[in-house]
Automatic annotation (TrEMBL):
Organism: Microbacterium deminutum
Membrane topology: Multi-pass membrane protein
Pfam families recorded: TauE
Name under which the protein is recorded: Probable membrane transporter protein
The family this protein is said to belong to: Belongs to the 4-toluene sulfonate uptake permease (TSUP) (TC 2.A.102) family.
Location(s), subcellular: Cell membrane
Primary location group: membrane
Domain of life: Bacteria
InterPro entries: TM_pro_TauE-like, TSUP
Keyword Cell membrane tagged: yes
């Protein structure tokens, strides 16, 4: 078990609650957890420890929104996401942590800018060549960023937001997307030494906080209107991008 000060445990507990809330109510909010874990734990260990907690929260998200998933969108994204995951594994093997964070931060800000411009022009990610290009670009970026920093949430949130999903369809599709992706990442993370025994012991302590956050998120999501939901997604995406750029 890592030896940490009480305040460090308190911050990790807050991060664990945020993980639960992000899965059942506000996608993208888990970038706060990414920031806290990276600040307290060694970078590689923080990535593996957070991945396990994300998988725990995925279970609650799937259970809550299993009937609202858009499988057509997930199937369309799958090839590009697998390419992104592969690129992420290769990138992790050669890049240091600082370079990884800054590259992802730039990507996220670019994604936000493009998404907001498209929405202002009244365009949607839908049908035809535009839809295929969007699925390929967002899917590749999402797979890449989730592999290297568990930061795929903001990227894919922008894609689902541009697709104009309802709150439930957004959360259901995101739940299945990240559950499948996070499970796929496990063998790679073990092979890269990201998941360790001390990290698993730390996760065991933090699991109750994840469960509490997930349950609170379910309560909160029922009270979110569409406009507030979309604004929260954008705000947390900007915060996540800023952290990755400046950390």
């Amino acid at each position: 078990m890592p030896e940490l000060a009480w305040w460090a445990w308190a911050l990790l507990a807050v991060a664990a609650v945020t993980v639960g809330v992000s899965k059942t109510a506000v996608p993208g909010a888990n970038t706060i957890a990414v920031a806290i874990f990276a600040a307290i734990l060694p970078a590689r260990q923080s990535t593996g420890a957070l991945l396990v907690l994300l998988i725990v929260a995925d279970v609650f998200a799937i259970a809550a929104y299993r009937r609202h998933v858009n499988w057509r969108v997930l199937l369309r994204l799958a090839p590009a996401v697998l390419i992104g995951l592969t690129l992420g594994v290769l990138f992790l093997a050669v890049a240091d942590d600082e370079w990884v964070r800054k590259v992802i931060g730039v990507i996220l800000l670019a994604v936000i800018a493009v998404t907001l411009v498209r929405r202002r022009m009244g365009r949607r990610v839908a049908g035809g060549g535009s839809h295929r290009v969007a699925a390929a670009s967002y899917g590749t970026l999402g797979g890449f960023t989730t592999m290297v920093a568990n930061a795929g949430g903001p990227v894919m949130s922008m894609y689902f937001l541009a697709s104009r999903f309802s709150v439930n369809e957004f959360l259901g599709t995101a739940a299945w997307f990240f559950a499948l992706i996070n499970l796929t990442k496990v063998p790679f993370s073990v092979g890269l030494g990201l998941i360790t025994v001390p990290g698993l012991l730390l996760d065991l302590v933090l699991v109750p906080a994840v469960v509490g956050g997930a349950l609170f998120g379910l309560w909160f999501a029922r009270r979110l209107d569409q406009m507030l939901f979309e604004r929260l997604v954008i705000v947390f995406t900007v915060v996540g991008a800023g952290y990755l750029l400046l950390s």
